[in-house]
Write a structure and sequence with these properties.
The structure is a homotrimer. The first copy, chain A, is α/β, with parallel strands linked by helices. Helices cover 49% and strands 15% of the residues of chain A. The first copy, chain A, has eleven helices and nine strands. Chain A has a six-stranded mixed sheet, with helices on both faces. The first copy, chain A, has a three-stranded mixed sheet with strand order 5-7-8. Chain A is globular and about 65 Å long. The N and C termini of chain A lie far apart (41 Å). Chains in contact: A-B, A-C, B-C. Chains B and C meet through α5, α9, α10 and α11 of B and α2, α3, α5 and α6 of C.
């Protein structure tokens, strides 16, 4: 029987993805990478999903690629690693398609490709027991999981270099101070806080969230004029949408908006 | 008679643009958006202008689009909002053409599209009474006014997400600490400080300022080699210009430079 | 006899480049710019080089272009300045090709083009006596040396504007707090610390370092999908390389890796 390495539960518009190799500190072997990708595709194809929560079982969030498995592949290790990285990457791209926000709940140690899974989320919630260690160049590798795309956007180029070349370890509070994560929550309250946040976001304006994420993701590549044009198109589409009308009405009626997240 | 919603005064090379709907907290209706655009075009076409100061009357700087007007448009609200955003955007692009710096004087609350008008400036001066609230997703919309282009450049991606998805409100001091604004000035001194700064910049090397702004605006989209080539062309052109010669002479003669801002 | 303005020593995989016009505060005249470019080309063509240390003689690191020389060129100053900037820029691009990290040791004042030479490095080490002053617009010029490419990536757009338009001077500690530099080292220990760091990096996984730098340098221009694909290709190539195998083996054997830096 194949080991279950990534679990999925979809309920009331919220998809909860759980890394489930706690005895291996949620290291991702090829099976886990492919399971993550499959789960992410399922989530992206489910039109009821309006928020995604990524979490992990056990003490570590994810320590990255499974080095024991990697070392056991001697014949064509490059190809094996390429498959692992590509599966994780495709999974991340699937989740980016979800019409709603991605929240990560980081309860412990994060390293290697685990970094990407934690920080590509739109809201990154940390326990004070969370810590970050890139660790790629320490073993002669360069990053995957989007770290070289995400870090300069989140912490600036100098701090990205310090994390990648000198493998500086970051505590949870430092990660927030540097802009890597959103906030630190007391360890015992993290699970509740993350679930409450994810449910709240699942009740938000999913299409507005997704269009905003899309614009943040292409912001740095666009010139000002191109980007302003994109903003005008998106706000006009939303103003005419069900959620845009409800949002404005609720504001004027001083009541809580009842968003559907729909187009 | 049409309401005057945006005022313009040009004097001694300084264009002062004033948002003038204080009884509506300077919310911009379609008329105000179009007036801003018209005023900005006038400024961009006036070759004597060497600095622009954007300010506002009353207690609020600008609370964004006029939601009362928006809610009154029921037939083709998308098209109406598109016109509003496009007028503001064209105005911002006109001001970017000015051969000199753009300074904003933010004396109070800023929300929605007001954010763009405040923070697209080259120097952003705040009263301690200024505060920032994006508020778009709270009413089911995505940003306009350049917020999704500007925020990642100014405060990094994580803080941009916090401002846009959770509508975190920022105080004046937080806005400076995060990199959204340049500095906080005591409320009673802000008007004088802003005018003095704008006049000083109007006496600066306008072409050097504009070429520098142009390079900052395309910095993130360029690769290093392309960008270095652009820098070499610009510094060479300036070194041969009237202002470049005057700057060097004044430096060697240990006197204050008398810049003309000209090509 | 031509003045020696830039010195080069290559030993044990470490190239040390020294700015050597201490009596001119290491201002770069055309000869120094061209010497830097020539030295950088030599370094880039030497396959034994696995790290570069950029340092300077005397009290100043580099105060930028030699204004005395610039003022003496009256006939075709634009062309002269273009040659200077282009030589510096070509030198920087040569050093970016080195299969290993670039470290700068900044013991004193930095201004103008000296900024680029100090901060384009992957690790920027400062004495508490270091200070930064852009100073271009003060003499009617726009930046060269990559400042308008580097500053928005390192300190964000608002602080870049403050440094460039208002010529705000930064102390060493501020430079680190803002993300311009990596860390401050007590002045008397800087030389040892920089040499030790550079030697350590020369013993690191040069190819992994270079591929990582290449990805950081194109990070902001790429979309997420393109960049993930690049990351997968690079980590796969490194996993199959000599250094990647050694890194993994050393990790599993809990010993220090013996990297060769080779392909």
């Amino acid at each position: 029987m194949t080991e279950v390495t990534v679990e999925l539960k979809i309920e009331d518009g919220l998809a909860v993805i759980t890394l489930a190799r706690p005895n291996n500190m949620n290291a991702v072997n090829l099976n886990a990478c492919e399971s993550f990708c499959k789960v992410a595709r399922t989530v992206s194809q489910n039109e009821t999903v309006r928020a995604v929560l990524i979490r992990a079982e056990g003490k570590a969030f994810c320590v990255g690629g499974d080095v024991m498995e990697m070392s056991s592949i001697t014949a064509d290790r490059g190809s094996h690693v390429h498959k692992m990285a590509t599966a994780i990457h495709e999974g991340m791209l699937y989740l980016k398609k979800v019409r709603g926000l991605i929240i990560s709940e980081v309860q412990g140690v994060v390293a290697g490709a685990g970094i990407g899974l934690a920080i590509f989320a739109d809201i990154v919630l940390l326990s004070e027991k969370a810590s970050f260690s890139l660790a790629y160049t320490a073993i002669g590798l360069s990053p995957d999981g989007g770290a070289t795309w995400l870090l300069p956007r989140l912490v600036g180029m100098r701090r990205a270099q310090t994390l990648l070349y000198e493998n500086r370890k970051l505590s949870a509070q430092e990660a927030v101070d540097w802009g890597l994560a959103t906030r630190v929550i007391p360890h015992d309250e993290l699970e509740d806080h993350a679930l409450t946040t994810a449910k709240k976001m699942a009740g938000g304006p999913g299409d507005a969230f997704s269009r905003t994420r899309g614009m943040l993701d292409c912001s740095l590549q666009n010139d000002f004029e191109q980007h302003l044009s994109l903003e005008a198109d998106n706000i006009a589409a939303l103003a005419a949408s069900q959620d845009g009308r409800e949002g404005l009405n609720a504001f004027l009626e001083k009541r809580r908006a009842n968003f559907k997240g729909s187009f």
